[in-house]
């Protein structure tokens, strides 16, 4: 029997080489392989790598060890897609995340170049997803085989959407049955204010529970909840069907630490504690 509840299986994509973790590729690869062989391996998604670092990744992965499952992150848009797919030939391509300012153009490029078995997610700048722009983009994506991707944080305060903005995205996807993934800022289970930066971080438990809502006000209320006890109780009351609905919607998020969110879940009683403790990339550094 799995030690990882279905709600958290495959939820945490390994973004160790991205900010704020910035782990060197040569260190991140063996760390990822360690995660994939740990007791919590079922919670771990693919190794995320930007198009410009695939050469480093190939050198670090070498010929020894299992083939890496790699999620290609393409911040440069559709022009990077063909070359990145070619450069990723040594790996198992687990997915593509394509940033763009033109959803229709991105869909066309993926339709043309993406192998049929490889999933993809399309990310547009948040300023294009406000007002009518959100509905226009989601309507394009819902008619495609691709997920939406939404940025939930970053290195400056303005990179963090408030609960109303995130609720609009989540409910827009829910109303259309459109799956999505998130990236950045979801390092912890519960919404909180970072004591060092003052940034308002969404909690990934908040986002998981808000994925059930089709009403923006209700979703925003869940996203604003700051009590881990309240959120853990709500998770414990989910039905099998609700868990399926949630994970069919919110498929994964990128995190620069795999163990930090797992430790949060263990602290809330939602996951067994790891023993011995597995250090996070930040602790390794």
Provide structural commentary.
With about 280 residues, the chain is of the alpha/beta class. It contains 12 helices and 10 strands. The strands form 2 sheets. The chain has an 8-stranded parallel beta barrel, surrounded by 6 helices. A two-stranded antiparallel sheet has the order 8-9. α3 (about 80-85) links the parallel β3 (about 70-75) and β4. α1 (about 25-35) crosses α2 (about 55-60). The model is unreliable at about 275-285 (pLDDT under 50).
- Measured between the Cα atoms of the first and last residue, the distance is 34 Å
Topology order in helix (H) and strand (E) letters: EHEHEHEHEHEHEEEHHHHEHH
Q: Which strand order do you get reading across the main beta sheet?
A: 1-2-3-4-5-6-7-10
Rg result: 18 Å
Quaternary organisation of the protein chains:
single chain
Uncertain spans: 275-285
Number of strands: 10
Total of helices = 12
Instruction: Tell me the helix content.
Output: 25-40%
What amount of the residues lies in strands? 15-25%
What general form does the structure show?
globular
Biggest β-sheet, characterized? 8 strands, parallel, barrel
Whole-number mean pLDDT:
93
Structural class based on helices, strands and sheet pairing: alpha/beta
């Amino acid at each position: 029997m799995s030690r990882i509840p279905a709600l958290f299986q495959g939820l945490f994509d390994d973004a160790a080489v991205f900010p704020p973790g910035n782990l060197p590729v040569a260190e991140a690869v063996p760390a990822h392989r360690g995660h994939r062989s740990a007791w919590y391996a079922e919670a771990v998604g693919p190794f995320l790598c930007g198009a410009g670092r695939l050469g480093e990744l190939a050198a670090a992965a070498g010929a020894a060890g299992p083939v890496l499952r790699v999620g290609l992150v393409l911040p440069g848009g559709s022009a990077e897609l063909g070359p990145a797919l070619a450069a990723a030939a040594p790996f198992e391509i687990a997915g593509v995340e394509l940033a763009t300012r033109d959803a229709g153009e991105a869909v066309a490029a993926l339709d043309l170049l993406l192998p049929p078995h490889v999933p993809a997610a399309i990310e547009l700048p948040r300023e294009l997803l406000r007002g009518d722009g959100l509905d226009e983009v989601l309507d394009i994506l819902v008619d495609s085989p691709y997920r939406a991707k939404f940025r939930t944080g970053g290195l400056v305060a303005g990179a963090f959407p408030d609960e109303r903005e995130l609720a609009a995205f989540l409910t827009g996807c829910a109303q259309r049955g459109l799956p999505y993934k998130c990236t950045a800022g979801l390092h912890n289970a519960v919404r909180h204010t970072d004591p060092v930066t003052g940034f308002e971080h969404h909690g990934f438990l908040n986002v998981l529970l808000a994925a059930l809502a089709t009403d923006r006000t209700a979703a925003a209320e869940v996203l604003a909840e700051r009590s881990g006890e309240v959120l853990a109780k709500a998770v414990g009351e989910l039905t099998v069907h609700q868990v399926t609905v949630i994970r069919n919607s919110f498929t994964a998020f990128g995190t620069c630490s795999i163990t930090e969110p797992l430790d949060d879940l263990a602290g809330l009683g939602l996951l067994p504690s790891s023993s011995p403790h597995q250090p996070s990339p930040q602790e390794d550094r």
